[in-house]
Design brief:
The chain is of the alpha/beta class. It is built from ten helices and 21 strands. The longest helix has 14 residues.
């Protein structure tokens, strides 16, 4: 990615998709060029949390909400230490942010972090195109990066696909750190960082859990050196078919029958550890308004998602695995995609979405309590 930080309001920009579709607008954020998988996010709020979510690494995110940037950028809502999206696509950027917590504009933050974006395009038409054709390689070009349409398309088509991409080590912490329990400490959890969001260990800390966040390269010895009551596998980017190391680590955790909880990428890792396959979705689930049914209760939740891959497991039968019986515990009501797994003969479960509720909704917060219950049961 090459960038410049000069003013962008009137600088021409183009978004080029790998199938040849081109959208023309104005530069938003940094000027230059960037490449990534074009995906759309249906959240009406929470753009700061989306942009700083490590699981959006190497993706150009299209905001389906037409007006973006109204609340500016603050210093409290980041989910990691930087913006991870490769590029940002919006229709109508706010001219002036208005929020009591705002420290600067979204445009200014994109410039400061060198994130190339584009505004002023028909994001509804773009979203419909991606829904019909699927997520695809793309590029945003502005300023000196502009060239002929043919040249820009060739640059896009030379980029790697998301399928087969191993990205989780790029975004994970390099050094272990501890998030202390809030109030009285009740449990210790080893959290394997595959692209973890900051709010996730915070939600566990609020429940009296001391969270030891470990690098994606953590070994079985590293995990059990902290004497965990439970082990957590986080969300993260890329193709789960490449994550042989985390699958081996989770297998070791399951063999010890330690309480286990995984979300998003962690759900896909559990699927692989249980012997299921994974596959790439046509356009994925992204945003904070995805309907999911918890089959263990029958309750329907509105949930936060960011995943382009899913677990290939049977929806309507209990499966026999090397770790006992397993079943699909949650399912997406839009398209019947597997949204959760649980073992019936030992304490392990996972979900495909983000229950930490950053930026909302809070329907799935009970899953952290379910993890606590597993650890209580094991201790008893």
């Amino acid at each position: 990615m090459t960038t410049s930080t000069r003013g962008t309001n009137q600088v021409p920009a183009v978004l080029v998709l790998e199938d040849g579709r081109i959208f023309r607008g104005r530069a938003y954020g940094a000027v230059g060029e960037t490449f990534g998988e074009a995906v759309f996010s249906t959240g009406m709020t929470g753009y700061q949390e989306t942009l700083t979510d490590p699981s959006y690494d190497r993706q150009i995110v299209v905001a389906t909400a037409p007006q973006i940037g109204n609340t500016g950028w603050n210093d409290e809502d980041d989910e990691s230490g930087r913006i991870w999206v490769s590029g940002y696509v919006v229709r109508d950027p706010a001219r002036v942010p208005s929020n009591w917590r705002a420290k600067r504009s979204l445009d200014a933050e994109l410039v400061a972090q060198g994130v190339v974006g584009i505004s002023g395009i028909d994001t509804r038409a773009l979203t419909r195109h991606l829904r019909e054709r699927g997520s695809m390689r793309s590029g945003i070009f502005s300023g000196e990066a502009l060239a002929t349409d043919t040249e820009l398309l060739a640059r896009v088509q030379a980029q790697p696909h998301m399928k087969g991409a191993s990205l989780y080590e790029e975004v994970a912490t390099k050094e272990a750190y501890v998030v202390p329990a809030v109030g009285q400490k009740r449990f210790t959890v080893a959290a394997v960082d595959l692209g973890i969001k900051g709010m996730t260990p915070q939600r566990m800390a609020e429940r009296g859990i001391e969270v030891h966040v470990l690098p994606a390269t953590a070994t079985e010895d590293d995990v059990f050196a902290v004497a965990p009551d439970g082990v957590f596998f986080s969300n993260g980017p890329g193709d789960p078919a490449t994550a042989d190391g985390p699958v081996a680590l989770m297998t070791a955790v399951l063999e010890r029958k330690t309480p286990l909880f995984g979300i998003c990428f962690g759900n896909q890792i559990l699927g692989r550890a249980l012997g299921f396959g994974t596959y790439k979705l046509k356009y994925g689930h992204r945003g904070i308004n995805q309907p999911v049914q918890d089959r263990t209760t029958g309750k329907v939740e509105v949930t936060a998602h960011n995943h382009g891959f899913a677990v290939d497991a049977p929806l309507d039968q209990v499966s026999e695995t090397r770790f006992g019986r397993a079943e699909v515990s949650h399912v997406c009501l839009n398209d019947d995609v597997v949204e959760g797994l649980q073992l019936l003969d030992q304490p392990a479960f996972s979900v495909q979405y983000h229950p930490e509720a950053a930026a909302g909704p809070h329907d799935a917060a009970y899953l952290f309590d379910r993890f606590v219950s597993l650890m209580e049961g094991q201790r008893a």
